[in-house]
Amino acid sequence: MKSLKKQIFGWSMYDFANTIFSALFITVYFPLFVVLNGGTSFYVGLTMSISMLLAGLLVPFLGAIADITQRKKLLLFIFTLLSCIFTLFTGLFDLTLILILGLLANFFYHASLDVYDSLLVDISSKKNIGWISGIGTAVGYLGTILSVAIAYIVGLIYGFETTQGIRIIFLLVAILFFSISLITFFYVKITSKVKIKKEHFSEAFKRVIFTIKNIKQFKHIGIFLLASFLYMDAANTSIIFLFLYGRDQLGLSLVQFLPLYVLMAIAAFIGSLIFGKITDKVGHKKTLTMVLFLWVLVILNLYIKTTYTTFIITGIFGGALLGGIWTITRPILVELSPKAKIAELFGYQGLTEKFSGVIGPALFGYVATFIDFRQALLVVIGLFLAGALVLSFVKKNKEKYLNKDLG
User: Fold this and answer.
1) Collapsing DSSP states into helix, strand and coil, what is residue 127?
2) Are 360 and 237 in contact, with CB atoms under 8 Å apart?
3) Considering the chain, what percentage of its residues have pLDDT values greater than 70?
4) Is the dihedral of CA 287, 290, 291, 292 positive or negative?
5) Who's near 300: CB < 8 A, 6+ residues apart?
6) Regarding predicted confidence, which is higher, 380 or 13?
7) Which contiguous run of DSSP H or E holds residue 397?
8) Burial level of 96, CB count in 10 A (0-12/13-18/19+)?
9) Which pLDDT does position 401 carry in this prediction?
């Protein structure tokens, strides 16, 4: 039991580490740095979309390699290191290289997430998977609170919207993301001495082709991945444009935004734990459906009337619901998937999430740039509704897998 607690702690600390990247790099400082260097919201959306597309194309293949070799921690280490390196260098160049390096940093960040998610099945059971997933998500939002503290301190010293301040932030993100993730590599005890060889790549390719050719066996996984494609698109778009929306519609400065970001993180921490308990008792699909409809109501409230008050309300409730989405998605996929293909199928979930990131941010950025930020909220509302509709067709435990050969 003590060993299991250490592993849960170690696993959840990666959520803490990668949330620092997500909060400071993706949500606040990369979009701001692009704008300060002559870019637009459309540039931000397009860059994020392309990086997620590239990650999505490779993730199922990489997940299959992880399943074959069980070298999940090695792959996770490599992706994390590369993301940190590109983050470090993003702030040192002009707009073109800012976009390219930001794209690569985000690419390797997203590539790491699906390998990390697949580790959940190794440290949990059917009875507690939602709760453990919720712990990871909740701990991640503690990383957001730390991020805001870092941003505030750096802002006081170097200025809140200055090039020098943002470069310091990028340096700190790279250091903290990598150093804190080391806890995961030390505490999660998944050992494999298999060396990744050339034949593993060909075997992984065959597994991916097998899954695609036998997609009828995975019908309800496919339906769920489509639902995930839609609602993750909405969630990712909300994260990327949160600060820019407040800046455009309410004239919020970064120093005004940071306290709200702390409230959102606290709400997300609480929401992750609450929804982690609810989903284990009520059921993953029912809980996720409720979360998606609540998201629609929250954003609709902001669309009807955008004021500082409604922005705060949206931020707090949206934070809690965002924690719910990350918490529930992992257990649903584990519930639907055969264990022998878990990392690969998390890769397909990652594929749909990355592909979804191609549409939402680019579309939101286009509408925000050429029409209006407020009207762009309709993009997010539509994606959440579509995700809830598709999710309604997912049936629990209806898959009939080939026991003798899962590819």
Assistant:
1) coil
2) yes
3) 80
4) positive
5) 381
6) 13
7) none
8) exposed
9) 41
Q: Is residue 343 within 8 Å of residue 72, measured between CB atoms? A: yes
Residue 58: count of CB within 10 angstroms of its CB: 15
Q: How distant, in Å, are the alpha carbons of 20, 115, 191, 272 from that of 77?
A: 16, 10, 14, 26
Higher pLDDT, 275 or 99: 99
Residue 94 class from Cβ within 10 Å (0-12 exposed, 13-18 middle, 19+ buried)? exposed
Pairwise CA distance, residues 305 & 61, whole Å: 45
- CATH level 2 (architecture), domain 2-185+202-391: Up-down Bundle (1.20)
**Burial of 127 per CB tally in 10 Å (0-12, 13-18, 19+):** exposed
Q: Structural domain boundaries of the chain? A: 2-185+202-391
Per-position DSSP letters for 11-64, written without gaps between them: HHHHHHHHHHHIIIIIIIIHHHHHHHTT--HHHHHHHHHHHHHHHHHHHHHHHH
The span from the CA of 362 to the CA of 271, in Å, is 28
Could you give the CA distance from residue 102 to residue 208 in angstroms, rounded to a whole number?
29
Give residues with Cβ within 8 angstroms of 178, minimum separation 6. Answer: 17, 80, 81, 84
Please state the rounded mean pLDDT for residues 393-403: 55
Nearest CA to 322 among 102, 110, 125, 140? 140
Q: Is 372 helix (H, G, I), strand (E, B) or coil?
A: coil
Q: Is the pTM of this model over 0.70?
A: yes
Of 333, 322, 265, nearest in space to 291 by CA: 322
Please classify residue 240 by burial: count the beta carbons closer than 10 Å to its beta carbon, then call 0-12 exposed, 13-18 middle and 19+ buried. buried
Using CA atoms, how far apart are residues 182 and 178, in angstroms rounded to an integer? Answer: 7
- Structure confidence at residue 404 (pLDDT): 41
CA-closest candidate to residue 14, choices 143, 122, 132, 130? 143
As given in the structure block, the two tokens for residue 44 are 């931000």
Measure the CA–CA gap between 148 and 142, rounded to whole angstroms: 10
How many whole angstroms separate alpha carbon 330 and alpha carbon 229? Answer: 14
Q: Which two tokens stand for residue 192?
A: 């494999």
Rounded Cα–Cα distance for residues 75 and 79 (Å): 6
